[in-house]
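sanity check this fold:
=====
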Amino acid sequence: MNSILPALFIPYLLLQLVFLGVQLIGQRGLKAFLATHTAIDGDAALVAFKQLVRGQMYGALAIIGLGALIILGSVTLAFTAGLLGLAVVLVLCGIGLVLGKTTKTLELQARTLPCADALQAEYAHICETWQKKPLPRF
């Protein structure tokens, strides 16, 4: 085992755990919202949707920042720790990829809920902001 492995492995593992934790928290919020809201059928549902989207957007910013650090750490660990480092990187990044794909599916469900006509314009604006803006401005 390379002598640099212990110095890089623990910070990398902690970084990945935080990354995966942020993903799981976001996913849990989406699942909870979707379990209690099958449509945007009133003001209360729209307010809950706004809260969900704000959390998801701030979580996405954290994921982007952590992701940049993970890319650097993954490359460094894979090159300095050989096959063991590469295996750790592939397993942890694979878990993150699966969580990310699952989260995207849940996000799509939340963005395509049936919506009352009176709330449709605001719901569409929130959905567009969620997809195209870095910060919630609604």
